[in-house]
């Protein structure tokens, strides 16, 4: 979508800021976006029939996140299991498989809807979340204690970061896919009860840089009313989960600081609906 071009030339000072933002430092290593695309495309073939919101977390051996061929990926992500996932999602149930867990939003009478991202990340009364259970199940080690989701007060760096040789760490490649980007009103709303930043950041903080991604297919439509800057800044609060937009064009990183060129913000207006006034 084209962005609106204002009729008047903005002042020079306003032009300078985005330019400065375009020259940020280069990032460290990350997952291969082409391999990420293979995983997301494959999983998304088993999305619920009505193509509504759902989220899925996939935990694979690290080598499986470098595959560029779906045929090879099938050895790790069993098709029988994914069909099972689709069935569960169609009946709006939580799915917990060997290498993947998935959920749809849960609508509640007289209570706020529980978002699918939250359902995968939030602990039950025993302190275990579907995603912590998944990561425990797929760590290639025996005799490790079950991981408990740290309490809220613990913040976002409560799990030990995995390193080679570390016992009982989460040595997986973790891909978290959500159809819609995590929304500002609930998931990224720090004053709400369903804030996922710490839960998400905690889990991803335990995973090696090269083997983690938070991927979405589209910007949550109501969030398109946000300005690019507000949306991007909210996404940035999830520091440990590198974000990608994965659609028919492939997977593109959302890290681009030059927001007019950020592929994840395509179709989001540059300045919001209300014209901005220059200050000073
Ligand atoms: C599931 O994950 C485990 C542990 O990472 C891995 O050994 C296995 O190959 C994966 N796939 C299947 C189908 O079990
Ligand atoms: C796939 O998963 C199903 C159910 O978990 C299992 O019965 C089947 O043997 C698996 N197939 C392969 C090829 O691993
Ligand atoms: C954030 O959550 C609070 C409390 O639920 C709510 O009052 C507020 O409107 C929310 N903010 C946004 C931007 O939706």
Describe this structure in words.
By secondary structure, the chain is α+β, with helices and mostly antiparallel strands. The protein has one domain. The chain has 8 helices and 9 strands. The strands form 2 sheets. A 7-stranded mixed sheet has the order 2-3-1-6-7-8-9, sandwiched between helices. A two-stranded antiparallel sheet has the order 4-5. β2 and β3 form a beta hairpin. The longest helix is centred in the N-terminal third of the chain and has 12 residues. The radius of gyration is 19 Å and the shape is globular. The N terminus is likely disordered. One 2-acetamido-2-deoxy-beta-D-glucopyranose binds next to β1.
Which key phrases capture this entry?
binds 2-acetamido-2-deoxy-beta-D-glucopyranose, disordered N terminus, 280 residues, 16% strand
């Amino acid at each position: 979508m084209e962005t609106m071009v204002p009729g008047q030339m903005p002042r020079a000072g306003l032009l300078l800021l985005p330019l400065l933002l375009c020259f940020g430092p280069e990032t460290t290593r990350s997952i291969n976006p082409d391999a990420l695309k293979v995983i997301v495309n494959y999983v998304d073939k088993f999305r619920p029939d009505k193509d509504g919101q759902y989220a899925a977390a996939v935990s694979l051996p690290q080598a499986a996140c470098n595959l560029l061929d779906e045929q090879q990926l099938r050895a790790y992500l069993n098709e029988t299991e994914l069909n099972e996932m689709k069935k569960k999602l169609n009946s709006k149930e939580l799915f917990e498989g060997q290498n993947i867990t998935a959920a749809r939003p849960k609508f509640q009478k007289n209570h706020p809807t529980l978002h699918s991202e939250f359902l995968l990340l939030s602990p039950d009364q025993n302190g275990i979340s579907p995603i912590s259970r998944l990561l425990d199940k797929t760590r290639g080690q025996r005799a490790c204690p079950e991981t408990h989701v740290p309490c809220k007060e613990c913040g976002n760096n409560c799990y030990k970061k995995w390193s080679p040789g570390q016992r009982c760490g989460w040595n997986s490649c973790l891909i978290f896919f959500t159809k819609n980007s995590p929304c500002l009103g609930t998931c990224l709303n720090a004053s709400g009860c369903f804030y996922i930043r710490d839960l998400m950041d905690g889990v991803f903080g335990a995973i090696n840089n090269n083997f983690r991604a938070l991927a979405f297919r589209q910007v949550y439509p109501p969030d398109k009313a946000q300005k690019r800057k507000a949306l991007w800044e909210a996404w940035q609060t999830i520091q440990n989960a590198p974000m990608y937009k994965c659609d028919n064009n492939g997977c593109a990183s959302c890290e681009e600081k030059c927001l007019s060129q950020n592929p994840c913000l395509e179709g989001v207006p540059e300045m919001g609906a209300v014209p901005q006034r220059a200050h000073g």
